[in-house]
Design goal:
4 strands, 29% strand
Length: 62
């Protein structure tokens, strides 16, 4: 989490390993909501944003 209460997390395409930095304000995180998959700009595959967000939250609590 950065100083602006924004959680930064990395989205990685499982197909081509392209990496994207995503940000979400901490106040807007609701673990009951499902994020839509992101489309990889390199290969067009879906990237599971929910899994990446949950991992980032777990890592931020350490």
């Amino acid at each position: 989490m950065n100083d602006n209460n924004v959680l930064e997390f990395l989205l990685v395409c499982k197909n081509c390993n392209a990496e994207y930095l995503a940000e979400m304000p901490v106040d807007e995180i609701d673990m009951n909501d499902e994020l839509a998959p992101m489309e990889c700009e390199d290969c067009g595959s879906d990237i599971d944003a929910n899994a990446a967000l949950k991992q980032a939250i777990a890592n931020s609590k350490k």
